[in-house]
Specification:
4 helices; 3-stranded antiparallel beta sheet; 153 residues
């Protein structure tokens, strides 16, 4: 039996993935350069990129409805509880500088910074909603990085 030929959608997705992977290979490996690169590379839309120990990891953004609902519920509860004059609650698009690089947690509470900041160095609360595909990274690598941040409460 022969495999069915790629549909137009499949071909387009393969081209997009190939292009994004090539872009990630050329990403700066220092945190400041990485943040600027990630913020100004439109071809990365639909991908989550992180930097740890000079290595760029790239994942397609495709969460389940349950994952999205859990993040939203946490966001709503935290938003109702914080002092908005001094703190903000964000979702996965705002970065955290860790001792190893840049991470994008699912939900984050941080003091207000400059409006154009791309990441915080002073998070108060970091939430990672566990998924089967990322549990090892979230429970080991990220946890070790996050626990080294002195501002976490």
């Amino acid at each position: 039996m022969t495999a069915a030929p790629f549909s137009g959608y499949d071909r387009a997705m393969n081209v997009m993935v190939s292009r994004a992977l090539r872009l990630a290979e050329g990403a700066p490996r220092d945190p400041d350069g990485f943040l600027a690169w990630a913020a100004n590379t439109p071809a990365l839309e639909g991908y989550k990129v992180e930097l740890a120990d000079g290595e760029v990891s790239m994942m397609m953004v495709n969460t389940t409805q349950s994952h999205a609902a859990i993040c939203t519920n946490i966001l709503i509860q935290l938003h109702a509880a914080i002092d908005h004059a001094h703190h903000i609650v964000t979702v996965a698009d705002f970065g955290v500088r860790t001792p190893r690089g840049i991470r994008y947690p699912d939900v984050l509470v941080t003091p207000r910074g400059a409006p154009n900041d791309l990441a915080t160095t002073t998070p108060l609360l970091i939430v990672e909603v566990l998924s089967p595909s990322s549990i090892a990274i979230d429970m080991v690598e990220k946890q070790q990085e996050y626990l080294q941040i002195p501002t976490l409460q």
